[in-house]
Amino acid sequence: MRDKILRELEKIKAEDLYREMPAMTEGAGRYVEIGGLQYLNLSSNNYLGLSGVESVREEAEKALRQYGTTSGASRIVTGNYKLYDDLERKTASYKNCERALVFNSGYAANLAVYTSLCGRETHVFSDKLNHASIIDGIRLSGAKHIRYKHNDMADLEALLEKYKDVKEKVIATDTVFSMDGDVCQLYRIVSLAEKYGAMIIIDEAHATGVFGRGRGYAHEIGLADRVDVHMGTFSKALGSFGGYVASSEVIIDYLRNKARSFIYSTSLPPAVVGASVGALKYLAKKPEIGGRLLDAAEDLRFYLSQIGFETGMSMSQIIPVVLGGNKRALLAKEFLLSKGLYVAAIRPPTVPVNTARLRLSLRLDVLDEMDRIKSAFKEMKEAGI
């Protein structure tokens, strides 16, 4: 067994797929520090920079002082406290849903949704580029997992037609895809779901806080009330940690009683819940900031395309710079480090073979550095990388 593991590790290294933890002092802020040097942070999912906003930090500190460092148990034992109820009420209102339930992570939320709502009689139609937590949730549920080609609505319709006599059907999709930055075809998905009697579950992890005046992509395009289950996270644009599910009172009540990743987990510590409350309060006062970020991302995408880089179908703050080979992506990352920028190099299996890329996560708190960012990419192009 040990020999097998060693052989597999050597293979990973030979294919330039070996991963290590970056040795940095802090990774969420405007800058990351590595080896005593500071680099502009273009890799964090802290899209709005809310982890550094004073009012958000104050809410976390207040919760810490009032409730201590741990919840002490699961929510259904003694791990519940008033602040949790406040957060769920604010989240439900934020999402325009009857109820919301907070989970320890987005991963735990997706496991809960699919293992609770789906079973062996369920057919789940899932976009091929959906997040791993959606895939794992479907697998654990025992449902029949039917993957349709990425954003290919003709393929989805053909599959729904093939299984039209199945009673329990679910369409599952990210709204913003984490490695490509493109968005789902939600208009068509809603139309097909209504035609074939399917439930719709969306993952708004990378849209929450940014699209729809912060409420997500479904709100951006006016389809939120035609989606059955809204899942999202506090750990990206909201600058905190944890996941949420917002839906009808019946579905949330069902999850509270059936979701193993909820029932059997010690609940989040008070400081984290406080930070999430603080983030929602902040966005209620400044709902336009996500739009500012999207405008800046559109400008940067246009520039990168003009100088010859491939940015795919990105329509969000996530901008892929597709380079192809693993070695080239790593060389590009090193080049940008030499220019003071920290950008993640993403390789298979996270993305398909021969599509290794830089993944630019544009952040609201770096927009004053746009000229520097553009200049570094121009120099990289001129260097032939």
UniProtKB/TrEMBL annotation:
The modification N6-(pyridoxal phosphate)lysine is found at residue 236. It comes from Denitrovibrio acetiphilus (strain DSM 12809 / NBRC 114555 / N2460). The lineage of its organism: Bacteria, Pseudomonadati, Deferribacterota, Deferribacteres, Deferribacterales. InterPro entries: Aminotrans_II_pyridoxalP_BS, Aminotransferase_I/II_large, AON_synthase_class-II, AONS_Archaea/Proteobacteria, PyrdxlP-dep_Trfase, PyrdxlP-dep_Trfase_major, PyrdxlP-dep_Trfase_small. This is 8-amino-7-ketopelargonate synthase. Belongs to the class-II pyridoxal-phosphate-dependent aminotransferase family. BioF subfamily. Coiled coil: none annotated. It holds the Pfam family Aminotran_1_2. Residues 39-362 form the Aminotransferase class I/classII large domain. Its EC number is 2.3.1.47. One of its GO terms (biological process) is biotin biosynthetic process.
